[in-house]
Amino acid sequence: MTSKIRLLYFCAICLSGVAAFGCASLIFGPRPEPPKFYVLTPASAAPAPPSSPGSSGGLTLGLGPVKLPAYLDRNEVVIRAAENRLEFSKNDRWGESLEKNFARVLARDLAAHLGTQQIVVFPWYATTLIDLQVQVEVYRFETDVQGSAQLSAKWTIRNGDGSKILYTAESNFSQPSKPGDTTEAVAALSRDTGDLSREIANMVQQVRLQQPQPPSRPQ
Questions:
Q1: Mean pLDDT over all residues of the chain?
Q2: Gap between the Cα atoms of 56 and 158, Å rounded
């Protein structure tokens, strides 16, 4: 086989491959876009500051149960298309359970605001000594089509064994983001979570000052 014939043969193979690829694209459609995965992040990546006489460094705070709406118990990122209509993203996914991610980030933010690393996320052992408990029920946690990231939640502070309500409130937060940009939307939702942690931490400190101080625990 001469060089010219070999070249023509090679070109024919290439053209056949291109044609086959084009036909496959027409039959099966374009390849779907691969999914993207997102997680919430703490407002501050810095560790909790060292305790001081005016801080809550000696506090052991129990966080939970933390509950999110059932419609958020899914992998797809949710967008509120209208007040009574939700849309689920085809390609954007949460990297883990949103409820667990939310609780962990809230705990990190509370630790930073309260100056303590002793944040215990529910469930905890019955033998764990808890000073105060914070329960959180989230009503809304998603962005709308304008890019506004909304967080609405009821939260309750209880005594250490959970038998008495010491304070309860509802909080509503909103952070702007670029419409259609999931990366910015998740960052805005993270900021909402940080705002909630700040509000809870401020009240935890006030409630703790009103509580009788327990005797020192054995080391």
A1: 85
A2: 16
